[in-house]
Amino acid sequence: MRKICIINQKGGVGKTTTTVNLGAGLSRLGKKVLIIDLDPQGNVAVCLDNSSYKDMYDFLMESAELKECVQNLGKNLDIITSKETLTKAEQMLVNETQRETFLRRKLKQIKGYDYVLLDCPPSLGLLNLNALLYANEAFIPVSTDVLGMHGLRAMIEAVNDVAEAFDHDIKVTKIIPTLHDRRNKICVQMLTKLKNEYYELVSEPIMVCSKLKEAPASGKSIFNYAKSSQAAKDYLCLVNQTAHDEMAMKTSETEELDSSNIVKKLMATS
């Protein structure tokens, strides 16, 4: 099960849009996906025009059963939504022992999914720290402008600091250029800079597209709202890249296991 937080301390870079459409796209590939909204703004529920009977606050702080909080949206796609009450959860977590890993312990019961995607708030607060210590991967959407680049560097540093401080296995595995306009000089420059500095992590860009702004009003993913749009093509590319990475990871794990077995055999015969 891949546990991915979609995170950036900078707001307005398309975190929720990316979470919703990545999850919807992966579910169309036959992957079982759970989207968890950790942002008190609750935009996942808005984008998909659906909310769970009980939400993330109830699950974290009111001991609600997981099955009460998971809302099924169709084949392979579930969500746990949130609303402004989640702000209280962050305040209450301050008084918890081992508060940094509270979410990880609560989510241990989640099973049967290929992907758990966490839509994170635009901050570096306790909720995001919990998200980083639950997830094994971080996807960072970044606007292709100067401020976006600055925020990206700060976010990568934060992820690395958390990994080191808590001895936790999490890595930035995808940087997603968003709000890209190929007609804009600074966008083109920043995309080139991204690819030069982080070439192995950078996905193909998500272009500026009016359909992405319209889709939440209909409560649909971009694939259901405008499947022939440029935005749908861009997010399909991200979905395919993510699925391809999964295959590469499995190959790497198999090779490591085979290598380990060879070493054990050599040691046993020496």
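The record above closes out task 2.4. Task 2.5 opens with a second protein, given below.
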Amino acid sequence: MEDCALLEIESPTFAPSLDTPRQPWISSPYSLISWWDMERFSASAFFDIATQLSIMSENADRDRRGGIQFSITPEQRQTFLASLRRIEVECRKLDLKVSLHAASEAIITFEKSKYFGDLGNGTEQLRNTIEWEMRSFLFFHVPSKQADFYAQSELFGADVNARFPSIQFDMIEAGDCFAMGRGTACVFHLMRIMEVGVQEFGKKLGVTFVDQKNWQNILDEINKAIKALPKDPTTVEMSQVAANLYAVKLAWRNEVMHPNDKYTLEEAGDLIRLVKVFMGQLATVV
């Protein structure tokens, strides 16, 4: 039997292309992506997929509810094939690999179908596949006040970078950990930076810290060396650096960093500021 009244839709003018833009979280993984960029690349795709599936499901349901199989006309076949191909392209844009395969299979099936009722199970399966696969993409929200610390290659400034290139890795990691809310991990990387700074400070003062991990002992050695220096502007600068080192030591609240210690994000933020000041002043004297 020929078809009766069906939902009226316009044939999409969208031209499928293999050269479609990729989702920003696929082309640039492990980077910050704004909500705007997520919506820009995905909102229209989700809407198009939902619209096309809804139209096809409605026609298939009508066929099944009425108990009558309505034949698909050539014009309708082209219209719905265009819809499926649009879904196929959107799945490619969203990097939904399983759904892309399901859409391709649906196209093959529909090309051979004679009745709208044949679309029922295939359409429902395609809808479920897209939903399940989309649920597998997880996103981490970074508060805007912490986002500025992410992927910062000059978190402590250009002068510190130039003078202490060996701390670059830990400096970036400290900022990233802070941005991600990992206070203790942030402090771990800051401690590694401080170890470099303290050793450089000791070399400048002629002090060695072989196997010394007690911060108070280190400070005692530094203060002793500074007291032996002549009273001039350079010595004043050295005293200021030593004072900042002491401030960092107090912020750590212990003389030795123990593996079981935990640090809040607020404490980590305070330490970032203190270490930045210490390393900045240290860069001017060594």
